[in-house]
Amino acid sequence: MKIAVLGDIHSNHIALEACMERIAREHADGIAFLGDYVSDCPYPQKTMRILRNIPDSYMTWFIRGNREDYMLKHMHSLTDGWHYCSQSGSLLYTFENLTGSDLRFFEGMPIGMEVKIERCVPFSICHGSMQSNSRLFYGDTPDTREVIEEMNTRLLVCGHCHRVYELTVGDKTIVNAGSVGNPQHDGLDATMIMLTAEEGDDWSYEVVHVPFDTEAVVAEFKISGLLDKANVWSRAYIAALRTGRNYNIEVVRYVAKESRRRKLDFDNEALWQEAAEKLGI
User: Fold this and answer.
1) Residue 227 belongs to some domain of the structure
2) How many Cβ atoms from other residues are within 10 Å of residue 59's Cβ?
């Protein structure tokens, strides 16, 4: 039995297509998805079209990431202030390019689940943790060990931090699948996990690196109009795609700090432009 596990696509349909080609060559039996399917990259509808067709060819499992929660929350509160600017423009663009069917698809997803396949040892999947899809942890930290203690299976594959890592404590292992759409590591390839098990045996795993055409993704930011609608956020994302450095979180931290210090609104466009200038993006 061979199961591909991947997440954090962030509307990067070009990277997802490359991963699907690799999964086909690997003759995987199923695919488990870890959430954050949309937002940040252009044309989320292309990513959704791919995802919605996958169950026709593979056993599939879908869980909901925090970005899907953003979309659902906005659906129920359209007066939350999203508008086209560096702070919320990318989110609004994504929402306006989703359908009611896409949103219902998200609503039906749990934030974590145990994957149970006949004659195989069960394993767990989630985005952040089994209790919160926005919980962020990385490496051998107290938070990660707490998540391991809460596990009901011997293996948990998660996402959210965009960095591949593995930690084993006792007979339990947590593996992060990295990111398909926004990889943050020394290489710039998309990453996913390939799980393999014989009947009744524990799962073994391999980190799979998948090259994709970064510049084709970058070109779509301008063609789609997203670069104009989300400005600094999109510029930071483009820089991240080209370097593996998380420029988006650096921008957010700068704006958050300066908006508190100067008593300005978080969506103050001048602050976002200032952050971009400081970071050279």
Assistant:
1) no
2) 15
pLDDT tens, per residue, the chain with 281 residues: 999 999 999 999 999 999 999 999 999 999 999 999 999 999 999 999 999 999 999 999 999 999 999 999 999 998 899 999 999 999 999 999 999 999 999 999 999 999 999 999 999 999 999 999 999 999 999 999 999 999 999 999 999 999 999 999 999 999 999 999 999 987 899 999 999 998 888 999 999 999 999 999 999 999 999 999 999 999 999 999 999 999 999 999 999 999 999 999 999 999 999 999 999 99
Phi-psi region of 158 (alpha: psi -120 to 50; beta: other; left: phi over 0): beta
CB within 8 Å of 64: residues ≥ 6 apart: 35, 106, 109, 110, 111, 127, 133
Q: Is residue 193 part of a domain?
A: yes
Strand partners, 32: 5, 61
19 occurs within a structural domain? yes
Name the domain count of the chain: 1
Q: 97: domain CATH number?
A: 3.60.21.10
Give the pTM: 0.96
**Where do we find the tokens 């086909």?**
24
Residues constituting the chain: 281
Residue 110, domain extent = 2-210
Q: Let me know if residue 21 belongs to a domain.
A: yes
